[in-house]
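Homework-ish question, so no full write-ups if that breaks the rules, but can someone show me the predicted structure for this set?
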Amino acid sequence: MQLEYFQLVDRILDLNTEAKTITVEAQVPKANTIFEGHFPGYPLMPGVLLIESMAQSSGWLLLGLMKFERMPFLAAVKEAKMRGFVSPGELLNIEVKLVHEGSGYAVTDARVKVGGKLRCNATMMFSHIPFPNPDLRGHMDAMAKRIGFPQQVLLQ
Amino acid sequence: MPSTFDQVATIIAETCDIQRDTITPDSHAIDDLGIDSLDFLDIAFAIDKAFGIKLPLEKWTQEVNDGKATTEQYFVLKNLCARIDELVAAKTAGA
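A: Not a homework solution, just the prediction itself:
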């Protein structure tokens, strides 16, 4: 997890295009300036960043399902629940399932677990459009390589 | 069984917090009810789920942008409901 660059997903563990699910890992850094303010003397991973981690995980699932032909953008967060604190240094296991594939939009359910225990979950809606420019596409390709996006998915 | 319009009007009322009795078959979702694109995504999701269809929003938007269709054809509720009925019928015929 590179919070400075808003890169919250470290590794794709599994991407199943038939079940339309993805599982990723994200290591919360042990130290970061964010924790100095959130909160002084009691550092916690901010809920908005946990939501972002679920959004990015959902995004990788959608990119895989759409074979990198379109880019998803977060449109709405529904029913987000922060069920337990996440502390610096904890390893997040994020599971996402596609709930609905609409015309130009998609809905996912995402869950963040630590040590097998649910810490937060949300239902999220994304709009998706063709990649707006080659730079973004190139950036996403490089990122996909870095986090172990299973390239065979694109050949299916 | 409620009509397509009744179902759609209830979805719009609940999704967008609009009083149900202000929604009529002649209401234009955008011009009269003030529904924006994000709220319409929510409505499309609810309609897709309720009717087991996939509203072709992108195709409709493209047709409007290209001047091949007017927003009234898709977003006046009686017309929207007619499209939903067509999609449901097509799905039933294909099943």
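Now go work out the reasoning yourself. Hint: DSSP finds five helices and no strands in chain B.
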